[in-house]
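Hi, here's the filled form for the chain we discussed.

Project: internal
Contact: R.S.
Residues: 121
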Amino acid sequence: MVAYGTALGVLIDLDHFLIARLKTGQWDAVQFCLHNPRAAVADQRRIFDAGDVGLLSRLLSHLLIVGAVVPLLALGSRSLAVLTAGVLYVHILTDVAWDTRRVDRQVDAAGDEEELVRALR
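And the returned structure, exactly as it came back:
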């Protein structure tokens, strides 16, 4: 169960590559990871350029995955579906907490929430 949960928590983030591809039209992030596999583990900030994935796009993608995967798993194994839902819930919750902290810091630094909104566009 631990190995499954760990793998699931990591593999759900592969959607970031598809989002970046859809936004940029290129597979630069995938190519970077293939040429720099250590970065995928040790320095993930180097993988995507600013705006390649996006906070809301990433969270929406995760929610779409959960909404599709959990019901499908429930058809075969309720316990696996519950475990999957729990792992992905925690993953998304930590993503939201992390993003909230980052945005709050940017608002504090900007001193003006409207200024931050303009900067994020």
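Let me know if anything looks off before we file it.
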